Protein 1
Amino acid sequence: MLKPGKETDREKADRLITGMAETLRPLVENIEAARPVTQNHYGRYLEIMLTFEDVLMRKAVYMALSDAGANPQGVNAAARLAW
């Protein structure tokens, strides 16, 4: 049983994703405002995901990009290539 005030692993993960999304939001806004070089900017989102070797971190970045307002089709296409 958790002690009062003790954060669960899920809560920690949610906090991490939220923090990453806040950090990525300005980058996502710039990407979305630019003329796409690849369909739905998937190339830019793939580049960001591939910054990390660990697949779990790539999945965290995927969730954060989605929360930051990235084009869903672009992020999903990048994720299919990143896994």
Note: Residues 9-33 form the longest helix (25 residues).
Protein 2
Amino acid sequence: MNNNNYEFLFEEIKKSLINSWKIENKIQNIKTQNLLCEINYFNLLELKQIKSYLKNISTINKIILKNISYKSNEYNLNFYGNLKILPILFKKNGLEIKIDENKCKIFLK
């Protein structure tokens, strides 16, 4: 095999991998999912920061406050796409999320 054949082979492998990734990580924007999440915070500035980071996550459709208590709020998170993708998006936006069935805890990284 000469160099041109290797380049062609690697280019085809790259295209195939990218297409597989797109299918596996596809974010559909038709159906939404809900997740009940608790946010624990030390002060109001930290809560504002967390909510600001949440607004930067494009797959989140709505954040609805369900319950308020001292240093802990509960929200209904309405989002598009796969639940498995959320932790990755949260990390990229300075947040951590722990998911247990249909409940979660959100906090700063």
Note: The two ends are 49 Å apart (CA to CA).
Protein 3
Amino acid sequence: MRNFSNWKCSLASVASPTDGVFDPLPAKIIEEVRGRVAAHLDAHAGESVTAVEKAGTLDDAARDALVSAVGDLAKELAAGLEPKAAAS
């Protein structure tokens, strides 16, 4: 069996930018996402995570679900920055 310990971070680093997930967001969000992506994917796209880990491949449906979950996380983190920016 392959080691997939870093595949979730790889998805966030490679697939999501090509899908425009981070385009409207501040650059510092990428580091925040990297730190939280594995747990977020497990919690919010668990079925796709399990499918990838079992099959060792990433089909289009799983990829779409995972990229969507990464996008949701990025937006959630960016929204958390807005009140801090307004208070500064």
Note: The CA atoms of residues 13 and 83 lie 26 Å apart.
